[in-house]
Each structure stands twice: as structure tokens, then as C-alpha cells.
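Changelog entry

Holo records now carry the ligand SMILES as an explicit input line rather than a separate metadata file. Below, a converted record for 2-acetamido-2-deoxy-beta-D-glucopyranose, shown in the new format.
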Amino acid sequence: MSFLWLLAHRNVLAALLCCATASKLRRVPQVEELGLLWQRCAAEGDDCACGSGHVRFGEGDRWVALQLGARSAPVSCNISSFGEDPAFNRMKECWCAVRASENLQPARVAIVMLSRHPPDLKTWIRYHLHHEGVEHIFVRAEDSPQISESVQQLSAQDQAKVTLWATPSPSLLGLSSTDSRPVDDYTTLQARQTAAMARARDACNQMGIDWLIHIDDDELLYSPQSRKIGDLLAAVPSNLAQAACKG
Ligand SMILES: *[C@@H]1O[C@H](CO)[C@@H](O)[C@H](O)[C@H]1NC(C)=O
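Structure line, unchanged by the conversion:
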């Protein structure tokens, strides 16, 4: 008797487990990424209705994003809606940013770089200030007088966000002005980079800037999914002192 009862009971339990599992599978997948909660909204080819209007399209770690207005019409989850294919030959999906973590103030971010005959410094600076939300740029110019000309061609507002350090003149290094050897010969690139970073770090501390990023003048800071770099770094746990990005 009791044995049978146990069996019957087990079946109920099994049925309960089965239903619980089934309903769990139907739940919309969500993932929290650097302060933003994403929810899957459509398979490739379907329509995604996304209240925030912030939709990403892709797969794995390859995504492109659109910032439509809030409460805009559903977006077709396909390559033509997003203008490019972030994961060629793979089945993609759409995810909607449903909410941001609360109380996340964007982090304040600066860049430091050593520059020598940069290809297009003006565009480089404007891109980081206006598109990526970088607050200040420290440039250590290396044997490149045209760098200060480029900076002077920026708007006054942008110029105020750039600190330019020129290569010390040979006389400051105790060399005669007729000495035409490049300054590189006297200090290594790495030593100069380290010095520029230390100087920029001190300035950041005074300005209240949270993160200092070191990149080169032929590299661009790029944050996918239409997010500002300060928003991403704000979501990095505060006990971390360094973060590295994938190139
Ligand atoms: C892809 O999306 C566009 C709208 O962005 C739509 O007009 C088109 O029909 C869609 N293509 C397919 C194959 O669903």
C-alpha cells in the first residue's frame, strides 16, 4: 500500500517537475551585460518589438545595434534593417535592451597617447570627444610640429578638452641646438610612454576623471552596441583597477 502510494506520489512529483521545466524553457532569455539588461526579442527574419528602441542584432559576441526612438514600430530582425551582417553565415537573433542598472552614473574617461605624424588627428580627436564620450585627451607630440596646428583647428570647446605636450627641445635635454639626432635616441619609447601616462594620471586625479585609457593615434576606441565608453566603464565593478578591451 504505502509502496503504491509512494509511486503515485512520485508521478505527481515528476509531473510537477516536468511542467516547471517546461515553463522555465518558455521564459524569454535575458542577459545582463555591463549595466544593461538585454532580452531576446526575435529570431532572424521575425519582428522584434522593443519598447526602449535599443535593439541589437547578431550572435555570440558579434553584434550591431540600432538606437530607434522609444515606442517605435517593431523592427524586422534582418540584415537590411541593421545595415550590415555582424556574423556572416550564422543564424542571428535580435535582443532588446529592457533596462539599465539603476544609479549608474557614467564614468568620466580620458585618453592619453603619444603621437608622431598622425594620419588625421583632428578627426581622431573629434571622434573620441563626440562619438565615444571621452572627456579629455592628453597628447604627447613626438617630433611633430603639425600636431599643434591640428589642435588649433579644432573648435574652442574641443581645444579646451585637449592637453598637448610637446617633445622637450634638445636644449632642455642638455644637448646643443646643432645636434640633429632625434630625441628618441636619448629615451626609449617605453620610458616616454610611461612618463606621459604618469603625467596624465596626475592630471586625471585633479580633474576627478575615473578612467585613463592609453591608445595609439592609429587606433580607435570603439564600443559596440551604440554605448558610450563611460557607460560601459561605469558598470565595471569598482574593486577593479584595470580593464582590457579586445582588439
Ligand atoms: C528586412 O527588413 C526590411 C525592413 O527593414 C523589410 O522591408 C524586408 O522585407 C525584410 N526582409 C525580409 C527578407 O524579411
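Spot-checked after migration. The longest helix spans residues 2-26. Confidence is low (pLDDT under 50) at residues 1-24.
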